Amino acid sequence: MYDYLQGQLVKITAKFIVLDVAGVGYLINVANPYAFSGQLNQATKIYVHQVVREDAHTLYGFKDEEEKALFLNLISVSGIGPTSALAIIAADDNAGLIRAIDEKNITYLTKFPKIGKKTAQQMVLDLEGKITSGADNDVAQTVVATPSSNEALDEAMEAMEALGYKARELKKVKTFFEGTNDTAENYIKQALKMLMK
């Protein structure tokens, strides 16, 4: 099993990144691929977890060990698979998630894609008091208006669709951000905060 991979980040898509390690391109699924935009074509260290199934060997990547530990806790819950765990991590509100689990806030937990009431209750049962978070990095982002076509917003919406959000939810978010200019990473962070309210 791998702990991390270190190499050159050569590709970013809405669903995954590709890390070149000694001439081998590793396709790694991550919660928010555009969070790695500043590291494109640079040496990058990605913490990974490999999931082996009958029909696929899949790598999931994380920016740090804390994010990886949260992912491992989430997939230990019955009813939460790797894709759902990535969608939860993409909200980038680990402190809020842990608080919701510890306070048995089922309403908050069911706002994540593919998490119903039964799975939310299972999360509370399995994880209450078992996970902790570092500092809450909830930083407000500034959005500047611009009339031009917004490729970053389109990329963000595509990435959120890959996480399992429905078209009607994304349409509302996209309408809210039209006429603004920001990075795909920031759009995803802000959109996830909007959808979690």
UniProtKB/TrEMBL annotation:
UniProt keyword annotations, A-Z: ATP-binding, Cytoplasm, DNA damage, DNA recombination, DNA repair, DNA-binding, Helicase, Hydrolase, Nucleotide-binding
InterPro entries the UniProt entry points to: DNA_helicase_Holl-junc_RuvA_I (IPR013849), Hlx-hairpin-Hlx_DNA-bd_motif (IPR003583), NA-bd_OB-fold (IPR012340), RuvA (IPR000085), RuvA_2-like (IPR010994), RuvA_C (IPR011114), RuvA_C_sf (IPR036267)
Domain Helix-hairpin-helix DNA-binding motif class residues, every copy: 72-91, 107-126
Coiled-coil segments on the chain, per record: none
Compartments, record wording: Cytoplasm
Subunit text: Homotetramer. Forms an RuvA(8)-RuvB(12)-Holliday junction (HJ) complex. HJ DNA is sandwiched between 2 RuvA tetramers; dsDNA enters through RuvA and exits via RuvB. An RuvB hexamer assembles on each DNA strand where it exits the tetramer. Each RuvB hexamer is contacted by two RuvA subunits (via domain III) on 2 adjacent RuvB subunits; this complex drives branch migration. In the full resolvosome a probable DNA-RuvA(4)-RuvB(12)-RuvC(2) complex forms which resolves the HJ.
Protein name: Holliday junction branch migration complex subunit RuvA
